[in-house]
Amino acid sequence: MKKPEVAIVMGSVSDLETMQGAIDILKEFRVPIMAKVLSAHRTPKELEAFVVAMDHLGVKAFIAGAGGAAALPGVIASLTAVPVLGVPIETKSLKGLDSLLSIVQMPAGIPVATFAIGKSGAKNAALFAVALLSQASKTASGRLKRFRKKQAQAVKATRLSV
């Protein structure tokens, strides 16, 4: 297995339904990943050990999905200088608004790039990670350009019969 370039962390196994979109995108782009379920609240020591291990392996970005109080992305950002991309998980009680506000309101000095609530946020976080990687990789850059060109072609090919 190649060393991971992106680490995906989610606070609960139930978050996998949302975070699977990020996993799928990164696999499509052939980005080596490591995915784990670790909680900022329930497994803080294990989370810290994982972040330190990923730093030592040279991971280029973390994608962290969390719901509710959503401390996970911020805790990861406090443990590393590597970019952290936060994905708010939709919650039953507040539809993910609680998650979004928890992630986006990081104190100055501990940034977390924050994406949309739910599955589209997970996919966009993965695409953003690919864009970060493309700064140092012509291969990743070419794949991203082809992906975007394919998206544009699909829109152009759309025909409405009204």
From TrEMBL:
It comes from the Bacteria. Pathway: Purine metabolism; IMP biosynthesis via de novo pathway; 5-amino-1-(5-phospho-D-ribosyl)imidazole-4-carboxylate from 5-amino-1-(5-phospho-D-ribosyl)imidazole (N5-CAIR route): step 2/2. Its EC number is 5.4.99.18. GO terms for biological process: 'de novo' IMP biosynthetic process. InterPro entries: PurE_ClassI, PurE_dom, PurE_prokaryotes. Substrate binds at residues 12, 15, 42. This is N5-carboxyaminoimidazole ribonucleotide mutase. It comes from Velamenicoccus archaeovorus. The gene is purE.
